[in-house]
Amino acid sequence: MSEKDATYDGIGSAYEDYASGATLKRAESYSVLEMVGDLTSVDVLDLACGTGFYTRLLREKGAESVLGVDLSAEMARVARQHEAEAPLGVTYQVTDAQHLGVLGSFNLVTAVWLLNYAESRAQLRSMAESAYANLAPGGRFVAFTINPSFDYRISTSQKYGVRVIGEDVEDDHFVCHGEFVVDPPARVDVRRFSREVYEEELRAAGFSRVDWRAAGVSTTDLEHYGAEYWRDFLENCIGIGIVAQK
Ligand SMILES: C[S@@+](CC[C@H](N)C(=O)[O-])C[C@H]1O[C@@H](n2cnc3c(N)ncnc32)[C@H](O)[C@@H]1O
After folding, report:
1. Is the model's pLDDT at 1 over the cut of 50?
2. CA-CA 20 to 30 A from 56: which of 70, 75, 111, 188?
3. Architecture of the domain made up of 3-245
């Protein structure tokens, strides 16, 4: 079992607490759905599906089919439990997204908080290649990952449910020591690569076009929480979207 697998096997239900309460998840899911667009007749492969947050949401928003893939057997077990309790027809598979092979020909591959678990450029390339190999011609890869420009030293992101405690330099990237703000806090380390590294590895995997999409907040949440609450999120966001075209 790899260290990452063990991390999320240990986090399990704490992640559920985080995902159901964190305002980051509200803004992030709004941003991901904006990037994804119309899901009519769209077959989706959801990489790093975790407990099925997006797998289920994308199906609820109209996707034709959704297959979720995750490295952690425990996260997939919780996801399958949700499916058993409230069936949507989504399916799950426990596999490393770096070594996926071809599971099908999908119109859309999503990866929300996957690329930040690549520990090197080579691993980032493998994840990008997996996404590319599973896309039909003209398909899109929609990812959400740690923002290359994020500055944890001036961030108040704990109020949104997640925070970075410190960073170390490792080779050509940073290792961010983070935690989900739940009781007790759940620790995770993620890698913050530069924009250039992301773009080069996605292009090397075959993607013809790579666009960055800043995260946003819905009008409802802006009004509900107030503009001041979201200011830090919008100015120094921990996450950012990527849309890559096959
Ligand atoms: C922060 S959770 C995100 C879950 C879900 N996408 C969401 O946004 O709620 C990150 C997930 O990535 C998974 N993961 C990390 N490395 C992976 C890999 N190489 N292949 C597949 N899943 C991976 C973890 O097991 C964990 O479930």
Report:
1. no
2. 188
3. 3-Layer(aba) Sandwich (3.40)
